[in-house]
Amino acid sequence: MTLRKLGCHLARIQPRQPLLSGMRVFMARTAPQHLGRERIDPAPRMLGNDVLGNCTAAGIGNHIRATAALGGYQIAVDTDDAVRFYARSTGYVPGNPVTDQGGVEVDVLATALRAGYALADQTLFPLWGSVDTGDLNGIRNITAGLSTAYLGVRLAMADMWEDATGSLAPVWDTVTPASHGDPAPGSAGGHCLLLWDYDGTADTDPITLLTWGSQQKATWRWLRSRLMEAHGLAWRQLLPGGMLAPTGQDWDALVAANEAYLTGLP
């Protein structure tokens, strides 16, 4: 058995939270029909998510690493970094398991925007914004242009099934053997993970998710059935040239939305 913890609360909406709809050109353009990154290793790490419900913090740490990988380098993010941010963004007290209650994605993202994600030698501040879960084209644009999409999903018990070696099913899908357990979305709990790439846009086309320190395959129909929230993070200082990143007025709109949100925070 491999230890894997959940910890993403049900999706919530904050007043005035940044939305990506203001990035009109970036979000409305037709996303690539195929996003292949097989030759790039995003090098995801567990970051404590095997013993803590800190998937929301681990997700941001792995987002940093995925963005760096696209630029041909890597940034050191370790478990201590993720646990420290988990504590700051959720109230977790290290060493006190009673306080290990998981996190709300928009609260965690707000903390990253306001206070940054502190590493050993630097603190990184993302811009962020949310998109409707039904906008798969927008989610693909986020993945192609901002390195990965930061998602909240409701996992089924069937998704947590392991084989004799402790490995998950090779591909998460909505059609599962009865022996894998309850297939109802949410029967296992909420989880934060990243969308890294995809082979196509049809319901059964494979996609790649970054979670629990590994790459997990799934189908688009699986994601549609589990998805409860979707966000884009922009590490503008890390994004490599040549990507389908936002430009001009779209960047200005994202900056303005984040500034307005910060102004309204208590």
Automatic annotation (TrEMBL):
Organism: Komagataeibacter swingsii
Name of the featured protein: Peptidase C39-like domain-containing protein
Highest taxon, organism lineage: Bacteria
